[in-house]
Design goal:
By secondary structure, the chain is mostly helical. The chain contains 27 helices and five strands.
Length: 516
Amino acid sequence: MGNLQKNPYQDYLDSAQHAVLKKDFTLAESLFANALRYKKNSAHALAGRGQCLCQLTRPNEGIPFLYQAGKVLLKEARQTGKIHYLLDLAYQLVCWHAPEEALMLATATLTIDANSASACHTAALSLQALNRHAEAYSYSRRAVELAPLESNAIIQLAVLEGKLGHLADARRRLELLVEKKGDPNAGRAHLELGVILHKAGEFDLAFKHLTEYGKISLDSPVIRWMNKNAVYREISQYRESFTAEFLQLSANLVLDDGLPSPVFLLGFYRSGTTLAEQILTAHTEVVSSEEAHLITEVLNELSKITDSAMTLPERIKSLGSGEIAHLRKHYWQTAKHRLGQQVLHKVLVDKTALNTLNIELINTIFPNSVTIFALRDPRDVCLSCFMQPFTLSPLTVNFLNWTETARFYALIMDYWLSIRDSLSLQWLELRYEDVLDDLEGQFRPIFVKMGLEWSDECSDFYRHSQSKIIKTPSFDQVTKPLYQSSVARWRNYQDHFASVLPILEPYIKTFGYVLM
């Protein structure tokens, strides 16, 4: 008998899973790809490869693999009736901002098991992300009927009731939940109750519940290990290291490589960057990075080509013309890889609010870029951040405490003010309130700087936005015409601002807002 050739599928799969445990997603993705050579319809390998690509911030490549895995699991579920893994994968698609694919899997699952609360909940989440709130509400109500004690489903239903104006129902639902002892989602319930009470005009009670959400969250083990002070140390390093002379002279290191400069859109959270992005990208000659975190990839490449013993400022200051040319090329290769060939033929708007922290690197590799710094009344910014259900990180964890919210805002704004006049790039500040008053007047000069003519489509940006998946908390706001209700919301919380006004006052005055 001849020797039977061993199929290495399982070996590749086991090695890929080991690499995932070590968070080596590059290696894991390659190993999952090898496994698929031997078993092309392996749901496990397809899902693994898709997850790795998404973890590597390549969701445009990863999502099709996840959806393909879902179709394989759906076929199996129709034969076995087992839907658990299929629903897990549908929920992953929601998390990776692929609601259309998630919705197709969730609704298909309901044809197998019409009484699946998880499938109804996932369908509701998908529809909410698609801004189809009335349809989402129907699925969410069904999820709560099927699982009346599931707090995630209850909160989701209350959120949708709030969006549809059923404030009394949402309030009653959430008040019952926050009184429930030991519920793991009690913190989120306090947050959403605060939002509902804000809409109902009960501002002091809203602030009480928002504060309680922060206290509960800060006490969780996951949050306690986050180092919220790291950003303070980093900015201290930046201010000590980057001089006006370096920032101006670094422009001389960039050789004429024929590569364009993106338009950078940054600022602080909740300052109007998403609104500005949607107005800009309503122009047919403009494309958005869609928060692809391209500068993060440049930072990763920077760490590979410089001495690991150096601080980040030292790495940036050590760059010569050759390394800068390499990083510029890496930026555009990454952009093309993630966003398609269109980025080479249009003006790319790279929108990531806290790229403010990377302004020195941007200035070094793209010293002639147009950079738009979004501004909004500091009080409205801080209030909005305090009310948002951000994914928590060492940066956003600062929003769990009212005083820390103001301090974090002041840290970033003080840094911007300290460095803006030394930059060689073309920066301008764009006030949110001015855009609401005169959209065309504010954006016409910006388009001139971008080398483009004004387009009337930009005034109707919200029609363009309705057909897109927007990945920030502002998604259901920028799909509507401009409105003034978000201006001066802070006045409803005037008494609560007394404790943080000394922190915010310098920026209120500097950016031209009225103190009282």
